[in-house]
Model the fold of this input.
Amino acid sequence: MANEANGVQIYCTDCGTVMQGWKETICRCGGTWDVRRPIASMDGERLRRLFDERLGQRSGVYASGVWRYRELIAPELPEEALVYRGEGNTGLYDSTAAAQYAGVRRIWLKAQSENPSGSFKDNGMVAAVSHGRSLGNKWFACSSTGNTSASLAMYAAWCGLQSLVLAPAKGISPAKISQTSAYGARILAFDGTYDDGIRFLRQSAEKLGLYVCNSLNPYRIEGQKSIVYELAQQLDWSLPDWIAIPGGALSHVSALGKGLEELFALGLIGRLPRIALIQAEGASPFHRMVQSGAASLTPEPKPNTRASALNIGNPPSWRKALKALQMTNGVTAAVSDEQIMAAKRIIDRSGIGCEPASAATLAGVLKLRTEGIIDGDETAACILTGNLLKDIDALHELYENAGDASGGTLNVERVAELCSVQASP
Amino acid sequence: MANEANGVQIYCTDCGTVMQGWKETICRCGGTWDVRRPIASMDGERLRRLFDERLGQRSGVYASGVWRYRELIAPELPEEALVYRGEGNTGLYDSTAAAQYAGVRRIWLKAQSENPSGSFKDNGMVAAVSHGRSLGNKWFACSSTGNTSASLAMYAAWCGLQSLVLAPAKGISPAKISQTSAYGARILAFDGTYDDGIRFLRQSAEKLGLYVCNSLNPYRIEGQKSIVYELAQQLDWSLPDWIAIPGGALSHVSALGKGLEELFALGLIGRLPRIALIQAEGASPFHRMVQSGAASLTPEPKPNTRASALNIGNPPSWRKALKALQMTNGVTAAVSDEQIMAAKRIIDRSGIGCEPASAATLAGVLKLRTEGIIDGDETAACILTGNLLKDIDALHELYENAGDASGGTLNVERVAELCSVQASP
Done:
């Protein structure tokens, strides 16, 4: 795939080595691969027209909210290899309730939770699976705390391919692992963490003939760039002052930064928004690194947050994440589980809904506003990464006392009391 | 709303009385209301062009997969009263696996499970809430086993309105009730059935100032017609031989029949497909009525099926359902929970996924094929009514042994065994 003829190179972000052929996992130096595209030679105006024209498509590959932007994601893959299953095309909601909560001028909620498997992972996974399929792979694998595995399992099933999921036996969402299993993935639950699973795949995937779909796969990042492309297109190519995203494995911020850089270089957006990367306090090694000014990331050996999608102690993409932050004059913040669940309540009760990890964004905007880093007159987009239905335990905890669950008979008096209304005679 | 000037009438399907003003619940005779539109005076060709043009819209009210068809759903409501939140626009999947399983030529899966609240209920609910809002209501209520309540609660939250859900304390999906609660509904769990809740609302809703959003609300049916409009449009206005839908409260089949009748009368489709209405064996009073040739429905006092969305013993819309069946030369079938779960496995493992009730459609097509009622050369669309994530207990039961959940260490040998692959040296 790395092909000088079409100007595409895959190179190591650490040592600069250019990949020859396809190495599925990591560079010999231990660094991660990234795809370099000839953005400077592309015609931004032509692309904008093309992307806008494709909005009218309702079927076929270019109706996908990822492949609409194919020229920036993977033009080097043959069209017949491209997988699509309704990903992207997610809603963007102008939320007064969220803006009031955080004390800023305007907040848009970008609901990647509306993707087919219920999370933002589909945007990147569809590109990785397309790439792996173009090379003739049969087995696709990942280490996952949930959303990644469900997305991989869905796309593998959709294409008639096989998937293997390495899942930490503890601390994952039952809904996510059940969903993964339903799509037919082989699941190996092990005693260890997400990070242990990544380490195993780095060492053994080639030996086992597994195509690795974690975010160290550079096509995950390429596909995931489509989130900010779509956000920009929905806002008529003018982005808000801030984009807030949750930070777990940090592939999301890497993709966001790369997508922004490209949009800016192409002249599709006139200025760069600032990135606000929000981690959960119990799993915030990246935030701590940025705060302390340390030169490298010290993993958190025992990550611990209620927002299961963020429960990652050794994020593999921290170098790319740092680059994205620096490029956009971005900031980090860490929020408590209580702050996350309070923000989730706002998002849920606005009729949008999300899983806890997604709500870290709104909690983070509030925190950064309180600290004076975000101004009250500024605007922000919060990327909602996972569907409300993805993490049902969180609902039980938060909402079990929201009504009258006592059973018993139904009568006018009970209803009138519960709703604080008066019954007419 | 009932307005002779624009040719729209709301009338009782039992006694024929034309509604004067708006009565929220039922006719004095006990019958249900229906909306009559001046279809005969409408220009089908003009409508088709209009609906096709609107496919290019990606924001605003006409980007909705319901309001795209506004002229057939509720032109009498003022545009500013129309609620929309990304409903409809769901995927249609040509599934070889499903066709092979049922032994028919071709099966499309129409994934209403991709609606914003995760079920087909959004199509009808958005119309009912729009209508209720146009009348100035503040409190919206329903009796529900789950999907209806989640949909209502979502739209009420989205519009800043209040919702009340009467929920049977037993036999409902925890995911659905948690979702409902998350959106901020007041929930009253009571000892009784869905049918008891309906009876209470019929008697007491007006007294309590509640706008009732169950399917006895005729705007639920009007909105729900959009499912078959969209299906027809996606298939370039040519429907398959059969449309299979699950039967619980029977509003779905009523809406489907009405939508088909209109499409045919307008010349938008050249022939009517046959409806296959599938019930779960443990909750199949309508199927039994049809089979026995009885003149009226005998309720099932203790409905009992694993497919919780179908667990309804006294479906309020059975008269409309019968009319729809007769018009399309339709049939009914009842399938066991085992047959439902086996069909669910096929749909899940094709990468689409659904809740158990939805899988009754595919199980029913297989059964009707086996009985020779559906021919092997025929085609069918199965309407998937609810998202995979809506009924997670079902997943645990079915899939808990799909992998290796034993924990322990991660090594090449375990992976090789689980995936039946050979590790290279």
